[in-house]
Amino acid sequence: MFVMFCVDIGVGVKAWKTQFADDVTLTVSAESPEGAMKKMNDALTEFQIYATAHRLAAETTKTQILFSTSHRKRKEMKGMCCEMAGHELEPSEEIKILGFHVDEQLTGEAQCAAAAKKANSATAAIRRAAKYLREGDRVQLAEALAHPHLEY
Q1: Residue 24: closest CA among 140, 123, 54, 142
Q2: Which pTM value belongs to this model?
Q3: How many Å apart are CA 67 and CA 80, to the nearest integer?
Q4: d(CA 141, CA 133)
Q5: Secondary element (H or E) of residue 65
Q6: pLDDT tens sequence for the chain (152 residues)
Q7: CA 8 – CA 106 distance, rounded (Å)
Q8: How far is the C-alpha of 121 from the C-alpha of 145, rounded, in Å?
């Protein structure tokens, strides 16, 4: 039902948008760090205005900022923050979008590390219960609990 109310979000927010249910991703690009910050702050302000006008509450505590740029420019951007509804938003080295971990370099390493951690937790649980399970059952549990994290 949320998507019904947000179909016109493109009218008020000029940044490139991706929307899935109640998750909205705003993307901006610019030649300079200052230009990128200005565009993102403008996009966040436009989104806040849109949300307020449509009686929606944009959750600033769940809002994440990621700078994806060269190592040299990232150093220049150190200490820069965006603002939304009077709250300062600190950039992260890694964010989570629809369950997928994205890092500053867009390498996918963060997703692989998170998947490996989940798979290790599942295999550790199977190992603890191994003495109570037959070998075939252990294999089935590993395929059901650990493998999906690695295949995603």
Answers
A1: 54
A2: 0.63
A3: 10
A4: 10
A5: strand 65-66
A6: 444 455 555 555 666 666 666 677 777 777 887 888 888 888 888 888 888 887 877 777 777 777 777 777 777 777 777 887 788 877 777 778 777 777 777 788 888 888 899 999 999 999 999 999 999 999 999 999 888 888 86
A7: 29
A8: 9
